[in-house]
Hints:
The structure holds three protein chains of three kinds.
Chain A: H1 17-27, E1 32-37, E2 41-46, H2 51-61, E3 66-75, E4 80-89, E5 94-103, E6 108-110, H3 120-130, E7 133-135
Parallel strand pairs in A: 2-5, 6-7
Antiparallel strand pairs in A: 1-2, 3-4, 4-5
Chain B: E1 3-8, E2 20-26, E3 29-36, H1 44-48, H2 56-61, H3 68-83, H4 89-118, H5 121-142, E4 151-152, E5 155-156, H6 164-187, H7 190-196, H8 204-210, H9 215-218, H10 226-229, H11 250-274, E6 293-300, E7 303-311, E8 317-323, H12 325-331, H13 333-337, H14 345-352, H15 356-360
Antiparallel strand pairs in B: 1-2, 2-3, 4-5, 6-7, 7-8
Helix pairs in contact in B: 3-4, 4-5, 4-11, 4-14, 5-6, 6-11, 11-14
Chain C: H1 3-24, H2 28-34, H3 37-74, H4 89-99, H5 110-128, H6 145-153, H7 156-166, H8 170-201, H9 206-215, H10 224-237, H11 249-252, H12 262-287, H13 299-320, H14 326-353
Helix pairs in contact in C: 1-2, 1-3, 3-12, 3-13, 4-12, 5-7, 5-12, 7-8, 8-10, 8-14, 10-12, 10-14, 12-13
Amino acid sequence: MGKLAQREGLGPGGKTGEVIAQTLVEKFPQDVKITKATQNRVFATVNKPAWLNVAAFMKDALDFDHVTAVSGVDWLEEKKMWVVYHITSYANRVTAELIVELPRDQLEIDSISNLWGGANWHERETYDMYGIVFLGHPRMERILTPDGTDYFPYRKDFVGGRRV
Amino acid sequence: MAEMWLNMGPQHPFTHGLWNLRVKLDGETIVDADPIVGYLHRGWEKLAENRMYPQIIPMADRLCYGASMSWEHLYCNTIENMMELEVPDRAKYIRTIVLEAQRIGSHLMWLAALGTDLGSYTIFLYSVRERELFLDLMQNLCGARMTYNYCRIGGVRNDVPANFERDFDRVLTHFLNRMNDLESLMDRSSVFRLRMEDTGVISGEQARNLGVTGPNLRGSGVEYDVRKDDPYEVYGDLDFRTCFEKEGDSFARYRVRMDEMRESCNIIRQAIKRMPKGPYRLKPPRNAPKGKTGWAHVEDPRGEGFMYVIGNGDDHPYRLKVRSPIFVTVSAAPVMLIGYKIADVPAIMGSVDMCLGETDR
Amino acid sequence: MSLYSFAYGLALWICEVIAWVFNTIGATGIGGWLVTPGVVEFLQIIIVALIVFIVGFLVSITFIWEERKVLGRLMDRRGTQVGFLGLFQNFADGLKAFIKEIIIPKDVDKWVYDAAPVILIGISCFMIGLIPWGPDFYLANLTNGVLLVFAAFSIAPFAILIGGWASNNKYTVMGGMRAAGQLISYEVPLLLSVASVVVLSGSLNFLVIVQQQQDSVWYIFPLIIGFIVFIVALIAEIERIPFDLPEAEAELVEGWMTEYGGMRFGLVMLAEYVRAYVACSIAVLLFLGGWSGPSFIWPEVWFLLKVFLLFAFFIWVRGALLRVTTKQILGIGWKRLMPLALVNLGIAIALRMTGVF
């Protein structure tokens, strides 16, 4: 992988995954729980009310500049949904996986589209497929399904054709 | 002329695939743009929840049919990360070689589409002629020219054919000579430069924030390549450079891809020399534990591809999420289009290398 | 033997045959009237016009064949293979254009929509008649032939504009306006180059210009700048790549011709190639010495050979270059070609006044 030399156009870098995990836990002791941290990976769960603050902190202080993905996961029997964020820091070469749990009867979470424009369409797709509303999103509309669809296709109680 | 919204698409000769680009025009200048996708949505992720893990490999081919091997490999890598399998070395080298050949093929297809957009069918035919050589190599290897179904969880489907090194060597030598011709047809053409320079400028800051990845990001001066910065397969052991340019216009993105094609030839040559003998496949477990997660990200020819899987306890995935690079780049298209003329739209969108299969999934 | 004398002989023969028929059935009045010089001359003109039109038309169609073959070879493929050497392709295309359904959109302006392709093809065929092929093979020997040809050439932007507008489609309106802008702005360097040739030769008559070139030197040598300006402006006038933005497939589907179907589209396409033929012919007549060449081949054949070679150069340009955008097209026309055309005109005037020509 080579030394973490400074590259043009990016921040100073130099923080490994363990350092980042530790910084996060120190700053948000009740809201962030680290599952695993290696040199270039961080796995954590975050509480919903503090999510926007955690995201803003990661962007400003820890050099996280690219949202790789925002996914929804539907746990039907446990009556909850996850929103899984994968956010990358180019300078530190670290990708963090952050899971926020939402109760299935109140599917709302703060949007991070105003911090990172790259999350914009990902959040729209998650709304389209799961019905999770991202508060503060500039344009919370369906994106992939046709206009006028009134169900959320990827939810587990929407059963498509089973082949196997 | 008053401002008007113009629909470029969904039926339109230049859009590579089925999408709609609504632009708001003030005379001939674009003041706003609104890309609309979703015409090709097949519910891929939901389909994947109904299939066994190996049955999803042909489906992954069809995510982006222009770069099938890349998506197959990404999927197999994701499942291997989830199941914590270590693929044998020979399989890793074969996969690397095939991935780089796929990258060259995909970039040649991009060049062909760019040629037709700009009005030069000569560029189209020359690129497609070179691409035929790589498709022949793939056909010798796995029997198919477009959707290969070659990677398996735990390795690759079959070992390399006889004369593998000789064929690759010949094709690469011939291709590098032809690259000089192809580049001179475009780099030294003042008409081409006139159309591509200073259009579609996106700065490095904007590109990073908006989630643009791959050659589009590297064309704006950000030196990030998943192969170098978070290596997978054998990229960590090979010696190559990240190609990037500083200006952020369409010409820079074009130059990045041409340089990447040459670097791919370099990588293939190194990998062929170092390929060890050994098994090319190992048998993965059938089921994955419930709740076990895994993810992988790779440098797709179009950007950063990423997949995330959660196991179900049996042989189906519980959730399989796909992140396609072009999905996010298209959302950044308005930044690249606003302020330019409508006649620049094919040059700009052509330099972004869109593939609708992976956008809509 | 010139074309007119050959036609006179043919007309006389036809009139005599018909007069003999009338005479044998007893209507000697009509028979007598048919062989008077007035009637024979009238028939002579019709025959000459027919011959010139058919030859010109066939040459234009052969241009289409030449384009497909040469362009194919440039792109590392064979051109069309239909029939012997691909010559049957044109007839196949014509047949296809005939049998296609003509779909007229709902709210078009009917009169204007019908008139636009008619004007275009009419004016193009009119120009065929003004081009002489040899010292004895022409339809009209006008004292101001050059002026008339360029006047007819310049009616095309009008037809394109009204055709695009009448089709009731945002894209075609834009295509029509772009085409009109491009064609009008390239008229100026075109006519300035022609003016320099006229200055050197002192006449607007094609036959006199070619005669002067045979006496002295082909005008391409003193007026090389003018030739280059003329060629670039011609490529823009006949709307070929690199200047074919008005009909750019990649952006505006077919530009101003989008809403024309079936034979109307066929006629418009044909008009484009007829204009290309007329353009190449004028370039050969004005700059490349017309039909002058060694006399072991007929002058008409020399002329056609040069026209085909010039068109092959145009095809080469098409094969190698890409389309240029509107802003850049207008920039090239006004900022690059105009000054060069003026310089060229100055050179021509200087050459004439110092008595070299």
